[in-house]
Request: fold
Amino acid sequence: MTECRTIAVANQKGGVAKTTTVASLGAALAEMGRRVLVVDLDPQACLTFSLGLDPETVEISIHDVMLGRVSAGMAVHPSADGPDVLPATIELAGCEAALLMKTGREYVLRAALDEVRTSYDVILLDCAPSLGVLTLNALTAADDVLVPLQCESLSHRGVGQLLDTVHEVQRLTNRDLRVLGVLPTLFDGRTNHARQVLADISGRYGLSVIEPPIAKSVRFAEAPAAGKSIMRTAGRSPGAEAYRTLARRLVGIEEPQATVEVEVEQLIDLTSEAVPS
Ligand code: ADP
Ligand code: MG
Reply:
């Protein structure tokens, strides 16, 4: 890999495995020898915590970077899992308001990361569950956006709004931003329901579905408390293997698949949300 690739993991819905995806995918890519930086853009600092850093004692964080107090390189910490981490603290909650007063506020992260891009093959951005200024910064700084999605009824709600935001970013601040597609998470393969939800969303919004789906597993709930990703706590589990496969596909070692196996006629109408125009 020659050029650094920056991937924003975004969905304004909470609990869809954005943070888990950044931690697990980051560790899987590091395992493959890639130089990885993960960036915590959520004031709740779950990524920071789940990679073994204590947000309470972190002294220099993404907040300082966003306010221009330090360079990104000065805020980077190593992690036991492999990737470097640009941590968040609760201070980041005040960042949105501070950025609103700034010129070029959507470009702050992009400019900060430009300084460290040559040190990494992949940068993963863990977005907060909102479409605020921090998420706009992530989408502006990214080459690609990946949308984790829990496949249950009504999980499509908000996808239209997210895509509207992506289109605005493409129009105004980052015309090269690509949508990788939706990553099915917390997937329950025992029922057809999850596949139908996926097919519905993919058809409705013209989105690719990234395979493999990440199955629901208690192993994922155990990892953050240990301050490590699933690659370390249950490295042979199906969940860890699924993220390894995803990592290989993302860096082009295997061709990406985008398949949904449900016929269009079979789709159930799950909603009332209109397709964005
Ligand atoms: P988000 O960042 O989108 O809010 P998280 O990654 O924090 O979501 O995940 C929400 C919760 O779901 C966490 O408790 C996490 O451990 C759990 N989780 C994530 N992925 C899975 C999975 N595949 N199976 C079971 N639990 C999961
Ligand atoms: Mg999160």
Q: What stands out?
A: Residues 18-19, 42, 46, 126 surround magnesium ion (ligand 2) (CB under 6 Å). The chain has twelve helices and seven strands. Confidence is low (pLDDT under 50) at residues 260-277. Residues 115 and 245 are 30 Å apart (CA to CA).
